[in-house]
Each structure stands twice: as C-alpha cells, then as structure tokens.
Write a structure and sequence with these properties.
Strand content: under 5%
Largest sheet: none
Helix content: 55-70%
Number of helices: 4
Oligomer: single chain
Distance between the termini: 30 Å
C-alpha cells in the first residue's frame, strides 16, 4: 500500500538500512544502545524505538521513557 511505501521511504531516509539491519540482529536492547545508535543515525531515540516496535523487536511497554 502507499502507506507502507511511505513508511519504508521515511525509515530508509532517516536510518541507514544496512546499519539498522545489523543493529536489529540483537535479541536484547538497552536504553544506552538505542541512544547510541540514534545518535549515530542523527535521529531521536524515540524514532529508533518506534522502528524496533514496528519490527516486533521490542514490546510496546518497553523504552517508554526514552
């Protein structure tokens, strides 16, 4: 759908897909790791958390205070 295409475009625009792919291979994440990755990508940590949630890598109850 167009919404999925738009979401993918925004995601790939703001976060390098290859670097995210490598980062998302983890099975556990810490707030510090998310902050560090977000800083490297020059995005807010909340954006990284949203992507991780969308990909079902973290739960919606995790990292609510980032």
């Amino acid at each position: 759908s167009k919404e999925q295409q738009a979401n993918q475009f925004a995601r790939d625009f703001f976060v390098d897909p290859m670097q995210y792919n490598e980062f998302s291979k983890k099975t556990k994440y810490t707030a510090d790791e998310i902050r560090k990755f977000a800083k490297e990508q020059k995005v807010l940590p909340e954006f990284v958390v949203a992507i991780l949630r969308h990909d079902e890598k973290v739960g919606y109850n995790q990292f609510t205070k980032l």
